[in-house]
Amino acid sequence: MVITTRKLNRYGYVVLAMVLGWLAFSLPEAEAVPSMGRQTGAPCATCHTVFPELTPFGRQFKLGGFSLSAAGPDSPFFDKVPVSALLQVSRTQTKNTGTDGAMPDDFPRDRETIIQAAGFYWGGKIIDNAGALIQYNYDGIERKWGMEMFDARYGNDVSVAGKGLAWGVSMNNGPTLSDIYNSTPMWAFPHADSATVMPAASTLVDMTLASQVGGVTVYGLWDDTWYGEFGAYRTANSGFFRFMGLNDPTETVVDGNAPYWRFAWQKESGPHSFEVGAYGMVGKVFADSEEQSLGSDRFRDFALDGSYQYITDDHQWSTHATWIHEKQDWKTSFDQGLSSSPSTTLKTFRADVHYYFRRTWGGGVQYFQTRGDTNDLRYNTGEPVMGSANASPNSKGWMVELNWLPIPNIKLALRYTAYQQFNGASDNYDGFGRNAKDNNSVFLLFWGLI
Q1: Alpha helices (H) along 328-438
Q2: How crowded is the C-beta side of 318, counted as CA atoms within 13 Å?
Q3: Neighbouring-strand partners of residue 29
């Protein structure tokens, strides 16, 4: 019997579905992050709508340094151990991987059923008023181990002008990782990456520095209404923050410190909660990470965001949006012949809405768009798949995701991503005949926490 590649792909999906279904009903029910659930004695729904989105109580728990605990001296030993494990198994299928000039390396792990992530959390209390959420795992797409997430913090409460101030200090490895809302990049939808190709351009604050830097921020929430945070980051390839990086060559190397700031206003009323805010950072990045003597370029990011939640026992609605404007000063790169313009701008907009019924069935829809000035030397690389023939970073499209949570700490996700524009055009964007819709993809994910 001859088994074709198409049949193998179908068999792969069937086998994956069988394995994920078995795991979903075999793993014990726990709470996300499970060690935090054991520590607080609270069900998953107390801190999350559906993980990793936080409820108002979950935001307070994070502000307090992950240290709230119901575990007493007579509690089982396992309830006092702040360690959990995660497993992600996924499969990505890009619509077209056979356009002119396309190579297998352009689509890493595409059409493969892979262990996308496997590792451990330290999630919970260290001492009174202090705790951490640390994720160290194997990345099955990049095929390496590394510090994916590090947020160790101290939190406390004082009275200021007759109102309560929840304040603290966080040491973390990425801008917006310390944030308490799900509208900023680190905690925004989609909550797990696929193995498909991504547009070439992104702003500095929008995950470009994630897991590549280390920093310290100071935060506070006054009168349960006004939130503020200030800090700075530097590249984690040497010095004190070295342990926070991913232990591989860093492409985006920050020159000195990159200041970060955040403000937000929030309001809670019964099942409703609202938030509007702004955040940003300023950073200098070496034009050539291996030849730092050439100098650095300067980036100034300013962003607006907002979110809304409606939470009851049966229904959970949420919506989030963010808009990021980046001013890019390429003077050093321009002088070195690495940029076609001494200055450009890049703007990103994303908005999503999600619904879940009894935290079991649901999903969401997101619209995303990136627009910016043309830059021939930055974007027109002359390469298939990732190049831009018209030197534009413009991309836009939609994501639709369906979720099923058979138990609170198991999530099965099916996502479809559709591009209307990719790297500057809808048709023949790379100059080799590839269209934006060729990058459309289907993503199937099992995500389990124990």
Answers
A1: 331-335, 376-379
A2: 31
A3: none
Contact 254, 285 (CB under 8 A): yes
How far apart are the C-alpha atoms of 40 and 37, rounded to whole Å?
Answer: 5
**What is the per-residue pLDDT for 130?**
96
Task: Please check whether residue 377 is in contact with residue 393, taking contact to mean a CB–CB distance below 8 angstroms.
Answer: no
236 phi, psi to nearest 5 deg: -95, 45
**Cβ-proximal residues to 142 (8 Å cutoff; 6+ apart), any chain:** none
Tokens, residue 64 = 């307090």
Q: Report residue 7 as tokens.
A: 């049949």
Contacts of 77 (CB under 8 A, 6+ apart): none
Structure confidence at residue 3 (pLDDT): 33
Burial of 290 (0-12, 13-18, 19+ CB in 10 A): exposed
pLDDT at 337: 95
Q: Alpha-carbon distance 149 to 242, whole Å?
A: 13
AA identity, residue 273: S
Rounded to the nearest 5 percent, the helix, strand and coil shares of the chain are: 15, 45, 35
Tens-place pLDDT, residues 294-350: 999 999 999 999 999 999 999 999 999 999 999 999 999 999 999 999 999 999 999
Q: Which residues contact 18 (CB under 8 A, 6 or more apart)?
A: none
What single-letter amino acid sits at 388? S
Q: What is the SS3 assignment for 104?
A: helix
Length of the chain: 450
What's the pLDDT score for residue 10? 46
- Cβ pair 185, 176 in contact under 8 A: yes
The first and second tokens of residue 411, run together, are: 């999530």
**What residues does 183 pair with on adjacent strands?**
none
φ, ψ for residue 21, nearest 5 deg: -65, -40
Q: How many CB atoms lie within 10 A of CB 418?
A: 14
> Which among 401, 397, 410, 405 is positioned nearest to 444, based on CA atoms?
401
Return the closest-CA partner of residue 171 out of 206, 130, 203.
130
Over its C-alpha atoms, the chain yields an Rg (Å, rounded) of 22
Q: What is the pLDDT of residue 338?
A: 94
Residues of the chain short of pLDDT 50, as ranges, are 1-31
Separation in Å, CA 417 to CA 156, 367, 400: 42, 10, 7
Q: Which of 381, 384, 373, 392 is nearest to 430 (CA)?
A: 384
d(CA 193, CA 413): 12
Report the C-alpha gap between 248 and 4 in whole angstroms: 38
pTM confidence score: 0.91
